[in-house]
Amino acid sequence: xxxxxxxxxxxxxxxxxxxxxxxxxxxxxxxxxxxxxxxxxxxxxxxxxxxxxxxxxxxxxxxxxxxxxxxxxxxxxxxxxxxxxxxxxxxxxxxxxxxxxxxxxxxxxxxxxxxxxxxxxxxxxxxxxxxxxxxxxxxxxxxxxxxxxxxxxxxxxxxxxxxxxxxxxxxxxxxxxxxxxxxxxxxxxxxxxxxxxxxxxxxxxxxxxxxxxxxxxxxxxxxxxxxxxxxxxxxxxxxxxxxxxxxxxxxxxxxxxxxxxxxxxxxxxxxxxxxxxxxxxxxxxxxxxxxxxxxxxxxxxxxxxxxxxxxxxxxxxxxxxxxxxxxxxxxxxxxxxxxxxxxxxxxxxxxxxxxxxxxxxxxxxxxxxxxxxxxxxxxxxxxxxxxxxxxxxxxxxxxxxxxxxxxxxxxxxxxxxxxxxxxxxxxxxxxxxxxxxxxxxxxxxxxxxxxxxxxxxxxxxxxxxxxxxxxxxxxxxxxxxxxxxxxxxxxxxxxxxxxxxxxxxxxxx
Length: 509
Known about the structure:
Layout: H1 24-27, H2 62-75, H3 96-103, H4 118-135, E1 139-141, H5 147-164, E2 173-177, H6 183-190, E3 194-198, H7 208-214, E4 219-225, H8 237-246, E5 250-254, H9 267-270, E6 274-276, H10 279-282, E7 297-299, E8 312-314, E9 320-322, H11 348-384, E10 389-390, E11 400-403, H12 405-410, H13 414-423, E12 430-431, E13 440-443, H14 451-470, H15 472-476, H16 489-494
Parallel strand pairs: 2-3, 2-4, 4-5, 5-6
Antiparallel strand pairs: 1-7, 6-7, 8-9, 10-11, 11-13, 12-13
């Protein structure tokens, strides 16, 4: 097997930087076109709907457009071009067969009758059964479109559960660990809950004494990521769940890190009442830049009545239908359900890709996936330990958090180190998260990277650590060899420019 090596630039040499691509508006010239539109009679359009001025669209030939986007693609970095070590993102390779299978459903209409979509419903039903088995849960809703929406859905389910028991007015508080994803407290707040944060202990677990002190009759639930955002397995997870249940509350599992548990442990066996799965992470569907995603919510039987509707029902004769949309009998009502989160089957194309991935791997392949993800993280950590501080000194699961606090004292921060990685040909890891680790760098290599890539990444990180000792200013000046250097990220976030300002046109800014 041949191994593709990365060309690492000499930071002391003058290396040519790829040219920036002009905007389509800057490439445009009047009269250029890639298509000839047959003339039409504008008089047929009512005057109220006719434009008063021509559209200010760029005029280009088809080759110009193709070359523009091809060049942008060549400047881009993705899982198809290199290692993507973003912690808590599981940026694994996405097999292309998944896309081919998903394309078979491209002509499906969301309002088609169940009579003409029996194969689709059968596929969705099987996905539910597979996810229930993987997580150790009883029932699944495919509607949530992302992990954060699934969190929100789960908390609505919690609220409905407590309302059914006559406790909605008293149970107004959600507890989260200090290592939680930021979406956890945000989702709780959106549901109208008050949020209490409990600290981590010296080993990176939830501090059980602090949790017990925070529990009370006003607590609706506890949100726990396992492995947590430190990449560590909760060593007393059953004790945590028992304590929450003893207080009459529910335990929500943030399944963002489910990749580490495949074939290793099931949340349902550990005491969780529900868990979501980011199939765009664990089951290898393309994601990033805001989507697409899917976050199926898996629950124990006592929460099933509150799941979003409609539900897919399998009849004794092997046919399928929606329980709220029967044409041959009275449809079921909403009952205790929280209602609809996303129309029927959620982001179905993403789910088909996940289904294909699961079927391709099989049970043995999924077990190997989880174990290889853990092995890759521990191997990479062993290589980096000599140069970087370890947040918590115990074996991680699928990802780990190191600290650049030592490098910060020497003159370069975690941000500087991550920018220097770009010059080494690698995407940077997640930085400054979780918040409880100073100068945090969260690294998740995933199971799809070969040992040679892990070695090359570690070598780059070690070179940067040495460079910080001898020339921290050079690290602070990185990146030097990318099309754009350091961006004004704060201004870009607070004052985004989302459209082209046509020269000489008022109000176009």
